[in-house]
Design a protein that fits this description.
The chain is 13% helix and 13% strand. A two-stranded antiparallel ribbon has the order 1-2. It has one domain. With 45 residues, it is of the alpha+beta class. The chain starts with a helix and ends in a 5-residue tail after the last strand.
Length: 45
């Protein structure tokens, strides 16, 4: 995720929620204000 953030010149914490590499996506249902969860579909690779 760090490399993705640098390559995409992410300038805000909220923008990290748009992370979408290797099938991973932000999962709002599993996240809360202190912990963000990113999940990947098993067939994404």
């Amino acid at each position: 995720m760090c490399r993705w953030a640098i390559e995409n010149r992410v300038e805000s914490i909220e923008a990290l929620k748009t992370f979408d590499r290797d099938g991973y996506q932000y999962c709002p249902d599993a996240s809360d204000s202190m912990r963000w969860v990113f999940r990947r579909k098993l067939d994404a690779r």
